Amino acid sequence: MDYGNSDDSPTVVLPTAIKILVAGGFGVGKTTLVSAVSETQPLRTEEVLTETGVGVDDLSGVEEKSTTTVAMDFGRISFGDDLVLYLFGTPGQDRFWFVWDELALGALGAVVLADTRRLADSFPSIDYFERHGVPFIVAVNCFEGARRYDLPDVRLALNLDPEVPVMLCDARLRESSKEVLIALLNHVLRSRGSRVEAESVPG
Length: 203
Prior knowledge:
Oligomer: single chain
């Protein structure tokens, strides 16, 4: 019996898998964005805030927040048939930053979510990705009641390099979150002459 390879055997092409981080300060909307855009049930590692965090967790501006991510959020979204993004939401509090190095391994790029009420909370994420050479964009999450600033003012306040994209978003909305991920991919792939279009992402 002939067990040799057949030229008629079908070729299986697996989609390219890309790891993306979603980072930012405490309560900025990382879990919300991953949940809004993921095509599968997202994995969450949230715990209820307790009295233990009093004096440690800064709730100014997000007083209504009752839970926090202690390890990561995880979701997935496909771009056509040949590209899959795996989204890892990082914990926002500095007492959980020891997991960042593990989460960042193999990441192609990152989204830094920003809240104009607590803009300084974005600096640790920005500094981390700059130090580790991870391409990133900044997405300003538009919270209700928060003051709106012009994007050039946000760029100046965060001392961003000119090539770092800055955009507005609503992390609660799937379409808005998709646009953030597309902007990141295009930022990362621009040097390769590639581009991702919104139409390639399932609705």
